[in-house]
Amino acid sequence: MLLHLSTWQEVEAYLQQSQGIILPIGSTEQHGPTGLIGTDAICAEAISKGVGEATHALVAPTINVGMALHHTAFPGTISLRPSTIIQVIRDYVTCLAKAGFRKFYFINGHGGNIATLKAAFSETYVYLEELQNGHASLVQCQVANWFMCREVLKLAHELYGDQEGSHATPSEVALTQYIYPEAIKVVPLSEEVGKGHKIYGATDFRRRYPDGRMGSNPALATPEHGQQFYEAAVKELSNSYLEFVNS
Amino acid sequence: MLLHLSTWQEVEAYLQQSQGIILPIGSTEQHGPTGLIGTDAICAEAISKGVGEATHALVAPTINVGMALHHTAFPGTISLRPSTIIQVIRDYVTCLAKAGFRKFYFINGHGGNIATLKAAFSETYVYLEELQNGHASLVQCQVANWFMCREVLKLAHELYGDQEGSHATPSEVALTQYIYPEAIKVVPLSEEVGKGHKIYGATDFRRRYPDGRMGSNPALATPEHGQQFYEAAVKELSNSYLEFVNS
Amino acid sequence: MLLHLSTWQEVEAYLQQSQGIILPIGSTEQHGPTGLIGTDAICAEAISKGVGEATHALVAPTINVGMALHHTAFPGTISLRPSTIIQVIRDYVTCLAKAGFRKFYFINGHGGNIATLKAAFSETYVYLEELQNGHASLVQCQVANWFMCREVLKLAHELYGDQEGSHATPSEVALTQYIYPEAIKVVPLSEEVGKGHKIYGATDFRRRYPDGRMGSNPALATPEHGQQFYEAAVKELSNSYLEFVNS
Amino acid sequence: MLLHLSTWQEVEAYLQQSQGIILPIGSTEQHGPTGLIGTDAICAEAISKGVGEATHALVAPTINVGMALHHTAFPGTISLRPSTIIQVIRDYVTCLAKAGFRKFYFINGHGGNIATLKAAFSETYVYLEELQNGHASLVQCQVANWFMCREVLKLAHELYGDQEGSHATPSEVALTQYIYPEAIKVVPLSEEVGKGHKIYGATDFRRRYPDGRMGSNPALATPEHGQQFYEAAVKELSNSYLEFVNS
Amino acid sequence: MLLHLSTWQEVEAYLQQSQGIILPIGSTEQHGPTGLIGTDAICAEAISKGVGEATHALVAPTINVGMALHHTAFPGTISLRPSTIIQVIRDYVTCLAKAGFRKFYFINGHGGNIATLKAAFSETYVYLEELQNGHASLVQCQVANWFMCREVLKLAHELYGDQEGSHATPSEVALTQYIYPEAIKVVPLSEEVGKGHKIYGATDFRRRYPDGRMGSNPALATPEHGQQFYEAAVKELSNSYLEFVNS
Amino acid sequence: MLLHLSTWQEVEAYLQQSQGIILPIGSTEQHGPTGLIGTDAICAEAISKGVGEATHALVAPTINVGMALHHTAFPGTISLRPSTIIQVIRDYVTCLAKAGFRKFYFINGHGGNIATLKAAFSETYVYLEELQNGHASLVQCQVANWFMCREVLKLAHELYGDQEGSHATPSEVALTQYIYPEAIKVVPLSEEVGKGHKIYGATDFRRRYPDGRMGSNPALATPEHGQQFYEAAVKELSNSYLEFVNS
Fold first, then answer.
1. Which residues make Cβ contacts (< 8 Å) with residue E40, sequence separation at least 6?
2. pLDDT, averaged across chain E
3. CB of C17 less than 8 A from some CB of D
């Protein structure tokens, strides 16, 4: 059930049965010469819809732009600052908590969002508790990273080994190929690829990772792999969501 | 050309030819008993894609949540605060301006966003000018409201007269029916409908507009009307975008 | 009744009879070669006092500086940022609401304030509602632009036609001449005047409007016209205030 | 020379001769049963105009609302928060510094503003220095409290001794009587008056100072005294301003 | 009793007997060629511990970094901005007030902190009052400057006369020598020393006070003097704390 | 070399040889019935000093209060909000970067700080890059958690196995016992201990972890263990610091 395709009265009815909601969050950032700028949002959205269908959960609209400041030396990247995201998450949760939602399950497509999301959850809890709303202490937020699902990691290791890398990975590229086969990019990739450098500011990042990839070989990706990743993630996160919402 | 389906190198190439970008912005808010909560985002996104195709412009991912605080007494509504939106817009424009974009064309689906967007633009200009980036004084933002296109207003008047109202209108509902025919809602509407009250806070709003509609009769909407609105808006905004980007 | 010339006990007594208050808001910005920098504040203040007298309403001190960022390339302009104004308005309304005021009627002298004021009102409502003050949902803010009064527009059209323009207009200059006849400026104006350009940042604004006027010919202004504008605005806004406060 | 009664070209000419500006700052707060709510703003404004005339300095519009949070349990008080004032001062100084002003002389009518003003100056300096504007290190702000002028203190001591107190004092009431003789209030004052308590929050303040006075007997004030205070303050601050602006 | 060496259950027991807490606040800033960068924090911490022992009061961990923006042109200085400190103090007081503390006694080692602390207290009171916590109006904050104790001033005058100066003073240097005799610095000092200049931004400050001292001769300091200052301050502030906490 | 025991001229000399600095960051939060509230700050500070000695690095004063909002239902806990910490870190790094520091090595004693520190680093990088300081892209921040050192984890596993738990652990308690043997607490611990629950808000946390421990048995701690942890951490982090600063 998609929030955007529902009416407020349908949401009112839904709340009689469940106080859980799935919030896809991605990023708008370079993903190397062949990865889509929307990769992280596309993956999070597709998997969220899959989990929503499997669990009859409500799915919020996708947060398309996340914390990608270190990618901003590449054109096309858009990033919020952490302090902005903290306010955004607080606003989302506050509105939905007012309506009766209690369990916020963020399906996340971007590693760079994790730290800021956790900071935002802490800020949101204290915000709600201080307002002394009766329900404040019942609000719970969780971040679920599809790319860290046990089966996903296992599959990526089997298919790509070392060439999975850590950004613009074949696994995420495969998933976008499965979802948007019409947008598969074929561009020659240099054999050398930046690898193993710590992440600091944007200028530094581009210096160390000149084509945007981090140790990955996305040329290995296929839409068929993408489907496998999709199914593994949906299955695992569906169980995880149900466990969360029923705890 | 959709930013989310492009690579950073494609964006780099695009910037050689154009410094313009289209940014769809909607809202996630109640639209009466039959209107979709995502109405404003859905309409802005569809029309943006249409304008993008017609003008070969780059289209950013949709800003799904806007300024809908006055709707938050209805479940399912999510709103950012104006102060949050100001930061969000500043972050978007700053990132894209750094990459070389100069003309930001926001295609907007929600009247409640207009004031805050204008405030955000002002805040963004001074932010960029103070940093003394060479390009700061070239950055220009514009908001284009599809529902205020001359042809759209004319058509709505012809089709619905007084029953167009000002929220959960048949014209926007028709447009969503055209885009998502599978999500057409049929629910009996009360004959009486709130009308003509000024907008203050959320509690007050729900008191005056008990089912969420503002003077509208969305039962008049059809997908065929929706197509007409779509075409009128795409045509008019395409011209407007080209004029903006070439000025 | 002027707040600044009252005691707190007089305010306490006033609140027994009315929960309304008038807040003049202007701007401190260039108004072309002959317009006073204080034009918008002067006009808002004078008309507010007139409305206060006509309706026995309390009048707050004038907010002299508003949202005039686009004028800051001209010396003498002072502007708050939208994010600052949002905090200022929230602070004003919160203090006065705590004392029992419920109806906030901002008489505004500057078009550039409107969007930010609306954003500020929304931010203030949610701020008060979240604190769960009993009275939060009764607080109502309204912005009344004297220069958009029906009679004012009509009179400006009759007197100046096209030469009214949209900034440093003869109507507002006339009004300041009526209020401060000792500060009438006589300076030759160039025949050419910037006109019809959209407003972006401050540098851009000055480039397009080199002497600060926007399509106006303030040389047409006379103090006698000013008096007519004053009387028309006071009359119309007095009715509007009473309607608001009694609704 | 009043900024509000000048044109931008007159300001441009002024800047050729001086980079100094006087900014009156007051407060909108209870001043006991006979003191005007606008006392601090009225005094600061009148003295600023006097100093401006004596020194040919430009005088900005009055900041009517300051830091009076501890008075907000009395109706009619309006206060900004310190964090808001910091932004307001930063905005004022930034705009004026951009135009070429370097010496900011705040003539202050309210003791409660001093700490926040100092904090705001520090925040403003670092803000300007970080932007690396060439002129940043030349910007200087100073707060001058008329009620702490040597001659003012001496006169108050001679006229009122212990009954001067520290809020709603006869000296400031006298000054408003001189400026607005038509607004002299005559109300019996209780013989007992709160005195010597430290200042914490608003509720606590009203508990300790039930009629708003702090150890003062404003019944001693006369308009003639007011004139003496006015003249002493204008003389002393004129010298102080010239010293500042010429240093 | 040091908070950092206590358990939460010991704090719980303490709160049965007292709702007071001592919070040392210093600064991390240059103190001339022989003064320690930690001088203000070291002094505040040592004296706080002494007062805590004498009065059986709980002592919080030291706030090591304060408002020292004007010293930031000297390497080693770290400063928070006033707006940051306001948030820090609000967070501290809010957490401790939630646990039951009511009396917050800040023992301060740096003149530059005073204004910002006062602003922060005001901001904190209104924050707590608006949340309508029952205890909000009982929260009281006070700043106690050890260097302004009557006996300390007297002693400094006797020992150093004019050479005490106002920054990097022999009295504070003596106190650090008493606490850290192993860190006594011996460096020749120029005979000339900056003196009497007002404080503006950091660049200006270093221009006027080239070696960081303000009119002081810290070569006069001895550890024995330091002990005298320590004892005088602990005695006076112990009385002051008890008076505060029992009022 | 401790920043607090140095002069600014010593720091100036240090910068000729190194641009690295160690910043200890802890927390002020409950650590169960026998753990010190200052545990995380005490450990971070002691290890930082050890690393500073071993590597001749400068050590900043300890950040005593971190992100411990989830512990605030236990008395004695003090926490900053994530948004406050972001500002604090930005202020620290900005000041020190201005003086020439480039490598910021945060030795951290509290798991709850990690996410917020990462967010703060990102916010700081973009802040510095936008100001276009020449050195901005050279600034690098890193967080090093002593409790996650390989040898520390191994030792904790050997000594305590499952009873190490994840908060108020015997390893951190042991370390504080080594540093402050005079503050060893002996209190009977319940056999049952909360374990394995996710962390949400403060009220929820105390409900699930009633005595503050998370699956740990701190009764196993001894000062001798503490010394072993200390030495292991100092050794490993010294290497890590040198690698960082020389990279």
1. E26, E27, E28, E29, E31, E66, E109, E110, E172
2. 97
3. no
Across the B:D interface, residue pairs with CB atoms under 8 Å apart total 6
Q: Which helix (H) or strand (E) holds B23?
A: strand B20-25
Tokens of E207: 């221009």
Asked if residues A124 and F204 have their Cβ atoms less than 8 Å apart, the reply is no
pLDDT, residue E131, reads 87
* Residue B239, min C-alpha distance to chain A (Å): 24
- How many angstroms away from the CA of F83 is the closest CA of chain B? 14
Counting as contact any 3 or more CB pairs under 8 A, the partners of D are B, C, E, F
Q: Comparing A80-84, B216-220, C127-131, C154-158, which segment has the lowest mean pLDDT?
A: C127-131
CB within 8 Å of C246: residues ≥ 6 apart: none
- Ranges under pLDDT 70 in chain F: 133-134
Tokens 């399509």 correspond to C215
Q: Please check whether residue C140 is in contact with residue C125, taking contact to mean a CB–CB distance below 8 angstroms.
A: no
Nearest to E83 by CA among F204, A91, A237, A83: A83
Report the residue of chain D nearest B126, measured CA to CA.
D95
Between chains, do A129 and F83 touch, taking CB under 8 Å as contact? Answer: no
CA distance F76 to F81: 16
Q: What is the mean pLDDT of residues A164-193?
A: 97
Angle of CA points B24, B25, B28, to nearest 5°: 135
The pTM score is: 0.98
Pick from D200, D241, D243 the residue to mutate for testing the E interface (most E CBs within 10 Å).
D200
Q: How far apart are CA E62 and CA E68, in angstroms?
A: 16
Inter-chain contact D82–E128, Cβ cutoff 8 Å?
no
Of B76, B72, B61, B74, residue with least CA distance to B26 = B61
**Contact between chains at C130 and A132 (C-beta distance less than 8 A):** no
Task: Give dist(CA E167, CA E74) in Å, integer.
Answer: 14
B132: distance to nearest CA of chain D, Å? Answer: 8
Q: Which of B3, B8, B23, B102 to mutate to test the interface with A (most CBs of A within 10 A)?
A: B8
Query: 132-161 in E: which are within 8 Å (CB) of C?
Result: 132
- Report E:71-100 residues touching F (Cβ under 8 A): 72, 74-81, 83-84, 87-88, 91-92, 95-96, 98-100
Sort strands D58-59 and D20-25 into parallel, antiparallel or unpaired.
parallel
As for how many domains chain B has, the answer is 1
Minimum Cα–Cα distance from F134: chain D residue: D132
Give strand ranges (E) for chain D.
20-25, 58-59, 103-108, 140-145
Tell me the pLDDT of chain E (247 aa) as tens digits. Answer: 999 999 999 999 999 999 999 999 999 999 999 999 999 999 999 999 999 999 999 999 999 999 999 999 999 999 999 999 999 999 999 999 999 999 999 999 999 999 999 999 999 999 999 987 667 789 999 999 999 999 999 999 999 999 999 999 999 999 999 999 999 999 999 999 999 999 999 999 999 999 999 999 999 999 999 999 999 999 999 999 999 999 9
Helix (H) or strand (E) holding E46: helix E39-55
CATH value at residue E135: 3.40.50.10310
Range of the domain at F121: 3-246
For an interface test with D, the pick among E200, E203, E208, E246 (most D C-beta atoms closer than 10 Å) comes out as: E200
Facing residue for D64 by CB, picked from C62, C81, C95: C62
Give the other-Cβ count within 10 Å of F158's Cβ: 10
Q: How many CB pairs (< 8 A) connect C and E?
A: 6
Using CB atoms, list chains with 3+ pairs below 8 Å to chain B.
A, C, D, F
Backbone dihedral angles phi then psi of residue F68, each to the nearest 5 degrees:
-130, 35
